[in-house]
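Issue: copy button drops trailing tokens. Both records pasted manually instead:
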Amino acid sequence: MFKRLFFVFRIAFAWGVAVMLFAALYSGIPIIGRFEAPAILLGFGTMALVIAGAFSHLHRVKLIAGRVDHDTLDNRQKRLVEIPFEAGEAFDLLDAAVRELPGIEQVDSARDSLQVRAKIARPRTYGEHPLRRWNPLLWFGQPRNQMLATVTPAGDSGRVTLICEPENPAWSDWFLVDDGTNYENAEAIVRAITRRVGDRRRGEQASATQTAEQKELTEAKLHLLHAQVEPHFLYNTLASAQLLTRSDPARAEAMLGHLIQYLRRSLPSAEEEMSTLGAELERALAYLEILKIRMGDRLQVQVDIAESLRATPLPAMMLQTLVENAIKHGLEPRTGGGTVWIRARADDAGVAVTVADDGEGFNTKTSGTGIGLKNVRERLRLRYAGAANLSVVANFPAGVAATITVPAQAPSRSAAHG
């Protein structure tokens, strides 16, 4: 109550001094100054309207803010807002929030200096003001408010300093009220910033959730692949072994041994999809040994992988996919067959595993659908979050070379989901 009375007294006192000065000047006018009634009526009328306007301002501020104190009663409002984005992003978010403010008339944005200035039309809160131009609270007041917002870089965030005030100079606050419009503007901009930050956060969380779901789906497909050995390959291998049991039992036994090794490595695992380069190499070599028995001298295999690199973490079945691509699309279509090279090299970027062949190369008749390589790229993206890649280039003088580059250490599960 004391604050309300002090506010009304301050406004009344300022206008009272102005009225007395006017009365003193009026009384000094020859002849007209003898008639005191007009000056008295004008003085009392002015004071009545001023006090009524002050109480109206108090009432509206109470409705808007829910409280009446020095901060809410002030015509000039200041806010400090922390935006959890770097300064450039914070500025863009602030600029968008200011431009959607009701009554905005003029916006000047300076991205280099991270400042936004704006003019805002003052709403007619209660329609037309009584007595219009005769209302003393409108005699020298501007019908607009203004706003200045500055973004200060603060590490990975931006700190916004927001000032909302009347277009009038500060001394006019002794005589005029803004009906709480600058408080409304300041709170509206803060709410808009908060909403936009929340929308960004929800979008990021939804994207992270979607990425995690994609990864889980890819892993589920991988487990399904583990449980399903390619029917044609299995059928052809068993058929070849059956024929060899009559003509060459030793080769038939070797083929079945390699098939057992391949199947053992291809069984589904309850663990994560990560394997090692050494384990994946054993699977691929078992597969190639079977094909060497079937293809004979048409298939040659060369392996160059240091023992120290065999513990490198590698997604399961990924090396197998590259080897199968080299056979199906590179060497099998060729009458003379060819060679498959499997190499691994370590450098500052990680470990590069290459499967190359000297087969048909980028031949549209043998290039297949590309689903296998597409799945490899997608699994690398989801598993390593951009820290791994697959490159496929022409091999000189013939064939294709596919290289997977992965970090020397396996990614953490949280990083893979991020």
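Record 2 (pasted manually too):
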Amino acid sequence: MITMKDIIMEGHPTLRQVAEPVDFPLSPELKERAQEMLTFLINSQDDEIAEQYGLRAGVGLAAPQINLNKQLFAVHIPDFDEDGNEIEPLLSTILFNPKIKSHSVQKIALKEGEGCLSVDREVPGLVPRPKKIRLEYQDIDGQKHELRLRDYEAIVCQHELDHLKGIMFYDHIDPLQPWVAKEDTELL
């Protein structure tokens, strides 16, 4: 089981490396580790389990964050009904060798900024990213898939994809005007 002690923090050299492509078929160890990454996200969003194991809630986890220099990440983005009850997740999967095939010109940013399981501090500022992306990836069996994502789901996947390129979210923040949105940037 992955816990916070398995997640490396900013400053660790692996977080600044470009991750290596994943070869198929997967080794049993890599398959298990990938499943553990998704399980960590699901557990981190469960209040009881998160408290028991001291987990910080997360919606995405990239392999480099657990010191595994491979092109894969897991996402678990919950969805809620109008009464606040959790329903089928918006996106819950593991993506191997993901690549953005196209993206919109229009940008979007979370109005409160982004956070990261590998960053144990507040980093103020907007992180502008394309509002829509078309993402190609392989599943756990090596089959190719395509996702068309927008808004929050697109932001989460781009954040995790950055980890595979050695990029941290705060690299995108304008150091002189961290909270100023450019004209083409919508705030979510």
